[in-house]
Amino acid sequence: MIRVELPAHLRTLARVTGEVAVEVEGPVTIGSVLAAVESRYPMLQGAIRDHGTLKRRPFVRFFVCMEDWSHQPADTPLPEAVASGREPFLVVGAIAGG
User: Fold this and answer.
1) E strand spans, 1-98
2) What is the CATH architecture assignment of 2-93?
3) pLDDT per residue over 7-33, tens digit each?
4) Total-model pTM
5) Which of 24, 25, 22 is nearest to 14 (CA)?
6) I need a surface site. Which of 6, 57, 59, 98 has the fewest CB within 10 A?
7) Which residues of the chain have pLDDT under 70?
8) In whole angstroms, how far apart are CA 30 and each of 66, 96, 98?
Protein backbone atom coordinates (compact mmCIF):
# COMPACT_ATOMS: atom_id res chain seq x y z
CA MET A 1 0.00 0.00 0.00
CA ILE A 2 1.19 3.45 -0.91
CA ARG A 3 0.37 6.14 1.61
CA VAL A 4 -0.71 9.47 0.11
CA GLU A 5 -1.23 12.69 2.03
CA LEU A 6 -3.55 15.17 0.35
CA PRO A 7 -4.04 18.87 1.15
CA ALA A 8 -7.17 19.80 3.09
CA HIS A 9 -9.18 21.03 0.09
CA LEU A 10 -8.60 17.75 -1.80
CA ARG A 11 -9.44 15.67 1.29
CA THR A 12 -12.72 17.59 1.49
CA LEU A 13 -13.40 16.99 -2.20
CA ALA A 14 -12.64 13.26 -1.81
CA ARG A 15 -14.57 13.10 1.47
CA VAL A 16 -11.71 11.54 3.41
CA THR A 17 -9.88 12.40 6.60
CA GLY A 18 -6.18 11.92 7.06
CA GLU A 19 -4.02 10.16 4.54
CA VAL A 20 -5.29 7.67 1.96
CA ALA A 21 -3.78 4.35 0.90
CA VAL A 22 -3.78 3.00 -2.65
CA GLU A 23 -2.55 -0.15 -4.36
CA VAL A 24 -0.33 0.32 -7.39
CA GLU A 25 0.06 -2.39 -10.01
CA GLY A 26 3.49 -2.51 -11.63
CA PRO A 27 6.26 0.02 -11.04
CA VAL A 28 5.62 2.58 -8.33
CA THR A 29 6.06 5.92 -10.08
CA ILE A 30 4.65 9.39 -9.62
CA GLY A 31 2.22 8.75 -12.46
CA SER A 32 1.09 5.32 -11.24
CA VAL A 33 0.43 6.64 -7.73
CA LEU A 34 -1.60 9.57 -9.06
CA ALA A 35 -3.51 7.25 -11.42
CA ALA A 36 -4.35 4.97 -8.46
CA VAL A 37 -5.53 7.96 -6.38
CA GLU A 38 -7.71 9.25 -9.25
CA SER A 39 -9.09 5.77 -9.86
CA ARG A 40 -10.06 5.30 -6.23
CA TYR A 41 -11.29 8.88 -5.85
CA PRO A 42 -12.67 9.87 -9.30
CA MET A 43 -13.78 13.25 -7.99
CA LEU A 44 -10.07 14.18 -7.86
CA GLN A 45 -9.59 13.69 -11.61
CA GLY A 46 -8.50 17.02 -13.00
CA ALA A 47 -7.78 18.48 -9.56
CA ILE A 48 -4.19 17.22 -9.26
CA ARG A 49 -3.36 16.67 -12.94
CA ASP A 50 -4.80 18.17 -16.12
CA HIS A 51 -7.44 15.91 -17.72
CA GLY A 52 -5.88 15.88 -21.18
CA THR A 53 -2.14 16.18 -20.64
CA LEU A 54 -1.92 14.53 -17.20
CA LYS A 55 0.59 17.23 -16.24
CA ARG A 56 0.69 18.55 -12.69
CA ARG A 57 -1.69 21.44 -12.08
CA PRO A 58 -0.18 24.81 -11.19
CA PHE A 59 0.12 25.34 -7.43
CA VAL A 60 0.24 21.59 -6.74
CA ARG A 61 3.54 20.16 -5.55
CA PHE A 62 4.76 16.61 -4.84
CA PHE A 63 7.12 15.77 -2.00
CA VAL A 64 8.89 12.46 -1.50
CA CYS A 65 11.15 11.75 1.49
CA MET A 66 11.27 15.48 2.31
CA GLU A 67 12.36 16.44 -1.23
CA ASP A 68 10.41 18.35 -3.87
CA TRP A 69 9.69 15.99 -6.78
CA SER A 70 7.23 18.30 -8.51
CA HIS A 71 9.33 18.65 -11.67
CA GLN A 72 10.28 14.98 -12.00
CA PRO A 73 8.83 13.09 -15.00
CA ALA A 74 5.68 11.06 -14.23
CA ASP A 75 7.50 7.79 -14.96
CA THR A 76 10.16 8.47 -12.30
CA PRO A 77 10.31 5.49 -9.90
CA LEU A 78 9.63 6.41 -6.29
CA PRO A 79 12.08 5.42 -3.53
CA GLU A 80 11.63 2.12 -1.69
CA ALA A 81 10.57 4.00 1.45
CA VAL A 82 7.47 5.26 -0.40
CA ALA A 83 6.89 2.05 -2.38
CA SER A 84 6.90 0.02 0.85
CA GLY A 85 4.59 2.44 2.69
CA ARG A 86 7.16 3.55 5.26
CA GLU A 87 7.05 7.13 3.95
CA PRO A 88 4.04 8.92 2.42
CA PHE A 89 3.80 10.53 -1.02
CA LEU A 90 2.75 14.11 -0.30
CA VAL A 91 0.52 16.20 -2.55
CA VAL A 92 0.82 19.78 -1.34
CA GLY A 93 -1.04 22.91 -2.33
CA ALA A 94 1.59 25.55 -3.13
CA ILE A 95 1.21 29.13 -1.98
CA ALA A 96 1.87 32.10 -4.21
CA GLY A 97 2.15 35.70 -3.30
CA GLY A 98 4.52 38.47 -2.78
Assistant:
1) 2-5, 20-22, 60-64, 67-68, 89-93
2) Roll (3.10)
3) 999 999 999 999 999 999 999 999 999
4) 0.92
5) 22
6) 98
7) 97-98
8) 15, 24, 30
